[in-house]
Amino acid sequence: MLKKLNYILNIVAGSFIGASIGHGIYVFWEYKTHPGLYAMQSAPWYTSIFVYGIVMLILLAVKGGNVTERMVDVSKVDTTGSDYIDMFAYSSHLSASGKCPGAQSAFIRAGANQHGADNRTHDDLFGMNDWISVLKDAMQTQYDAGNLKGYLDYKQFWDFLDNK
What we know:
Low-confidence stretches: none
Radius of gyration: 18 Å
Strand content: under 5%
Distance between the termini: 53 Å
Largest sheet: none
Mean pLDDT: 77
Number of strands: 0
Oligomer: single chain
Number of helices: 7
């Protein structure tokens, strides 16, 4: 019985991942094709993509057996000593509110840039990090590679956090 349930959950999770990716591509294409439709909305054009992503994360958490809910007060996130979940919530808030539009993207890329450098895995969401240093390392990597655009994308977020 458990094998059958696991099989069904694998199909549902895979289908939902595919649907989420498809939805994200469609919304991006529609935004680029008809930006006026989204200008009328009070929410940013990418809000529905976040909703799909959150539902997908919940589904994957349920499938993994680790159902968890955590409220994050973004006004109390310490960027020099917080875990991935707190910083993800904070950067998402900054992007969605328009305070720092590239925050979430820069955070996710900086976290991916760091992955492997310190023998951490993606499963380690609760370890404390100095995200200012992580961003600085990602900026330096882009600078060393001669990628000025990548450097400036990180720098915008880093400058925002530095002035906080």
